[in-house]
Amino acid sequence: MSRSHRLFDLMQVLRRHRGTVPGLTLARELGVSLRTIRRDIVTLQAMGADIDGEPGVGYILQPGFLLPPLSFTEEEIQALVAGAQWVSRHTDDALAHAVQNALAKIGGVLPPDLRRGLDDNTFFVGRSEKGSSVVDLAQVRRAMREQRKISITYKDRSGAVSERTIWPIMLGFIDSQRFIAGWCELQGNFRIFQADHVMTVSFLDDHYPGNRRQLVKEWRAQEQHPCKQRDCG
């Protein structure tokens, strides 16, 4: 591996961990010595990377620094194409459009020999039949970003109909089904709602309290296998 690629990979590892990372962990992930990690950290700092830490403690990368762009590997290109196919064929139209735009932007900066990989037919991802639903998933994602409540009329598995106000925190795509995970004010707990069981939906102006990311952590801590609770409203 060239030194430039190693520096790039080191930046990627630091970004992925987000918190303080011991030097030994970095060395193990990159397959180099601890001494090499220390030298590379000094090099990145000299290039302007805001990396805090010291030997024996660990390192943390502060946001805002970008290395000059490097080319993708063929494996990375294939991973992007396969992921884009899945998003295009299993989510909703807005995300499908967004992922195609993203691939176009990537293609615009790739050298010609790698750009051809974006049109490679190595993988085939089948298209799933999406169930009918009154829920606009693009609107749900916006409500999640803005941490706004959603009011729904919901029919559970037994056929009982109820009015719910939920705090959407996550979307799930399993086979042909779409799920909304969130806090249910009626139940006073986290619940998973099947999108095609939603009879009516209103996106409210009210913000829900707390932080969406923290709510996701609380939900995952509460239920080790939350997807087993699908349609548990």
UniProtKB/TrEMBL annotation:
Q: Locate the WYL domain: which residues?
A: 137-198
Q: Do you know which InterPro entries this protein is assigned to? A: CBASS_pafABC_assoc_protein, HTH_11, WH-like_DNA-bd_sf, WH_DNA-bd_sf, WYL_dom
Alphabetized GO MF terms: DNA binding
- Show where the Helix-turn-helix type domain sits: 6-60
Pfam assignment, any one: HTH_11
Q: Which UniProt keywords apply?
A: DNA-binding
Q: What is this protein called?
A: Putative DNA-binding transcriptional regulator YafY
Q: What is the lineage of its organism?
A: Bacteria, Pseudomonadati, Pseudomonadota, Alphaproteobacteria, Hyphomicrobiales
